[in-house]
Write a structure and sequence with these properties.
Immunoglobulin-like; about 10% helix; about 170 residues; four-stranded antiparallel sheet; 10 strands; mainly beta
């Protein structure tokens, strides 16, 4: 009887850690973009890619993007997206109306809305993530769009979905 009670209490205590970030990345993940899933990230290339709306980008003009799986089974249950110059997040994200049910803004490194993360995503996940990034007026040069993507709580890729754009 005592063993059964101990096992029950241990299982109840484990549940919050398994679901603790199902509603978005915490600010503590901003720097290294590593989710606290208590398993190692995947070492392989991520089965996702950035799809961008333009080929020429200007400071202050919106950059629309989509992150999409390479195959139908490459769905997304969690994500953290930033635009960076070096290690510093730059610009702001906007959430298109059709993405508001699964995406929210995150404030990283003292910025406001300079990262995009997930809300609780039900079912098997999203087939793609759609968003808008606004570069600051005073930025020019190369900017990397970087994403950490989770297929599920145990399978995820850290900073493996990357594309570089040049802002003129």
């Amino acid at each position: 009887m005592l063993l059964r009670a101990f096992i029950t209490i241990a299982l109840i205590c484990a549940i919050p850690s398994a679901y603790s970030y199902s509603s978005g990345a915490p600010e503590q993940a901003c720097g290294d973009m590593i989710p606290q899933h208590h398993v190692e990230p995947q070492k392989s290339d991520a089965p996702y890619k950035f799809i961008l709306n333009e080929h020429q980008y200007k400071a202050g003009q919106s950059v629309n993007f989509e992150i999409k799986g390479n195959a139908a089974g490459d769905t997304i249950k969690g994500f953290l997206i930033q635009a960076r110059i070096g290690d510093k997040p730059v610009g702001k994200f906007e959430i298109p109306m059709k993405s508001k049910k699964y995406a929210q803004l995150l404030n990283c490194s003292g910025g406001s809305g300079n990262a995009l993360t997930h809300k609780k995503i039900f079912g098997s996940g999203q087939n793609s993530i759609i968003g808008t990034w606004l570069p600051p007026q005073d930025v020019s040069g190369e900017v990397k769009l970087i994403a950490t993507i989770a297929l599920n709580g145990g399978v995820y890729w850290v900073q493996k979905v990357v594309t570089t754009i040049t802002i003129s």
